[in-house]
Amino acid sequence: MPFYSYTAISSSGEHFSKIREASDEHELARLIREDGHILVSSEEQGIKKGPKILVSIKEALSSLSGVPLIEKIVFLRSTRVMVMSGLSLPRALSVSIAQTKSKRFRIALTSIREDVIQGKTLSEAMEKYPDIFSPIFSHMIRAGEESGGLDQVIESLILQMEREYDIKSKVRGALMYPSVVFVAMIGIAILMLVMVVPQLEETFLEMGANLPVATQFMIGLKNFLFSFWYVLVFIVIVAIGGLLAFRRTPKGKKVESKVLLFLPVIGDMTRKTNAALTVRTLSSLISAGVPIARSLEITSAVVSNSYFEDSLLKASQNIRKGEKLSQTLRNYEFLYPALVLQMLEAGEETGQTAEIFRQLADFLEEEVATMVKNISSLIEPVLMLMIGIGVGFFAISMLQPMYSMLQHIK
């Protein structure tokens, strides 16, 4: 059923605004009347003015996409401030619902608010939406509810998510420039093959020039694009679709994770990024009072690399058998930097594992930021070299027959 945002008048004459689920506006008015209020105005959530087909496409894309991480951070920040100011949790959720841009997130928060009003805890209500709120959410919120320090736990969760967002943003930013340049290179190459090569080919044929292998290759590539462009498009679509489908399989995740771990430069950044995310998440969960074995299981769902995931699940099993975490992770020295293992041992000896993990996460995140800057600096000359090779090959392919013809004229 759709959700409606509405304005109504209470029995005391006070105006108020809320969001409620109803099959249509008539049922909405009836439900509000039964509560002793009078409906003033209502609007179905997500309905925008414009062509129906555009609205349908937008809604379909919205349902397929996830909730942006920044939306969750804003939600946590506003909720924490309002709870600390003395607002009740349902009221704080109502304000957050009004501020949320994502329709999917707004619907989830509306349902959570209704569950809280009916007596459920916030963590219980969040567990209904595991695709929006990962296990780290519900477990840390539950720990805060049980200890009475919900605002401190939310603050820790905000810090955790902000650091995660910061790392991902830096990595995406480093990859954005080479991606744009690569796409531009492909576009320019296709444009040259379609616009320039046909004209030069006519000149070569008219003059009866003997074409070298490189020139024949360029002309053959042009002819293929002209005659069988649809085959190329089909191959590209099938290749991308097959690759994406393979990545979703357990074997595909393993292959991708292994490639990322052992690529030059990228492999080191992958290790440190996942290690930083691991120790940051463990620090937040352990500080919130979540048992370390369960913390490892939750963290395994947060990391992006399947080898890190396997190591954390194995560590959780071994800890339940009485083994130390540092001892278990020694079997995965190819994943975790030596500093992580050394600091973990120190934390276990002093009983300050959570604090040491927090400091270690700060250090590793700084290292990742430095590596991203260095990679960005390294990529630029590599791209320039690739462009130079491409331009040089094209120039030689097209100019070599011209020099041959000039020599025959002499």
Average pLDDT taken over every residue? 79
As residue ranges, the low-confidence spans are 47-65
Helix/strand order, N-terminal first: EEHEHHHHHHHHHHHHHHHH
- How many angstroms does the end-to-end distance come to? 84 Å
**CATH superfamily grouping of the largest domain:** Type II secretion system (T2SS), domain F
Helix-strand makeup class: mainly alpha
Per DSSP, the total helix count is 17
In the CATH hierarchy, the third-tier topology of the largest domain is known as Receptor-associated Protein
Question: How many β-strand runs?
Answer: 3
How would you characterize the largest beta sheet? 3 strands, antiparallel
CATH architecture of the largest domain: Up-down Bundle
Global shape: flat
Strand order, sheet with most strands: 2-1-3
Strand content: 5-15%
Task: List strands and helices in order, with pairings.
Blueprint (H helix, E strand, L loop, with lengths): L2 E7 L5 E7 L3 H10 L3 E7 L7 H13 L4 H16 L4 H11 L3 H15 L4 H5 L8 H13 L2 H46 L1 H11 L5 H36 L1 H13 L3 H22 L4 H9 L5 H15 L4 H5 L8 H13 L2 H57 L1
Antiparallel strand pairs: 1-2, 1-3
Helix pairs in contact: 3-4, 3-8, 4-5, 7-8, 8-12, 8-17, 9-17, 10-11, 10-17, 11-12, 12-13, 12-17, 13-14, 16-17
How does this structure look, described?
- The model is unreliable at 47-65 (pLDDT under 50).
- This protein is 76% helix and 5% strand.
- It has three domains: 3-45; 69-133, no CATH class; 168-410, Type II secretion system (T2SS), domain F (Receptor-associated Protein, Up-down Bundle).
- The chain is mainly alpha-helical.
- Helix 8 runs parallel beside helix 17, helix 12 (266-287) packs across helix 13 (292-300) and helix 12 (266-287) packs antiparallel against helix 17 (353-409).
- Strands 2-1-3 form a three-stranded antiparallel β-sheet, covered by helices on one side.
- It has 17 helices and three strands.
